[in-house]
């Protein structure tokens, strides 16, 4: 009898205020603990990405949520990939200074991590992301110009040879919102996570390649009361490093079966 690897799938739903994994990367310690007793861990960006922070888990497969849904339903298979050529797609709605911060973050991962990135692609129209909250308190969102996003991803794949996609979309700044204040105190629901999932789901469903998203936002004002489990959000100008870093060693290709 052949010994099959002991495989664990870890899913922490996005944008519902999960007690563990509901903030910036606080599901990562759980993932690391499970990876120590499993031969292989399959999980998704909401678990492994903590703003600018991530941890390389060699036996983890990083799978976007839509692809993970398809895998769990028996519709898609997963093929481990040692190194992906990552295409970066930037929302035209990002201001020039903030766009430069994203590009510099990408350059930094090339120089320090040796990542294989294509030239970045800017969408041909602002994506105009809006944030929504359901009656249950769960967060979600809409993309007004989703066709512009798909055209940019298609260019990155067909013209630059991208095998995985990192998207940075301009998200609305709402510094005075009650939801944001609760989130920074380690309570409530991540106000951005639901909309982020909508973006990555759309790309993976359409192109069947890995995708993760990082929001572009204005820096938050300093707050001495920020909770430790939300503090990763305070580290800098961009959330892109954790997205790019995870694509290198852990990503999986989604393959229809």
Notes on the protein architecture:
The two termini are 25 Å apart. The relative contact order is 0.22. The chain has a four-stranded parallel β-sheet, with helices on both faces. It has helices at residues 28-37, 45-48, 65-72, 96-113, 146-160, 178-184, 193-207, 240-250, and strands at residues 7-9, 40-43, 60-62, 76-80, 86-90, 121-122, 129-133, 139-143, 164-170, 211-216, 252-256. The protein is of the alpha/beta class and 257 residues long. The chain has one domain. α4 (96-113) runs parallel beside α8. The chain is built from eight helices and eleven strands. It is globular and about 60 Å long.
Weakly predicted, low-confidence segments: none
> What percentage of residues falls in helices of 4 or more residues?
25-40%
Radius of gyration: 17 Å
Question: What is the number of beta strands?
Answer: 11
> Strand count, sense and closure of the main sheet?
4 strands, parallel
H/E element sequence: EHEHEHEEHEEEHEHHEHE
In one word, what is the shape? globular
Please indicate the percent range of residues in DSSP E strands (runs of 2 or more).
Answer: 15-25%
**What is the CA–CA distance across the termini?**
25 Å
Tally of separate helices: 8
Mean pLDDT over the full residue set: 86
Number of domains: 1
SS-based class: alpha/beta
Cross-sheet strand order for the largest sheet:
6-5-9-10
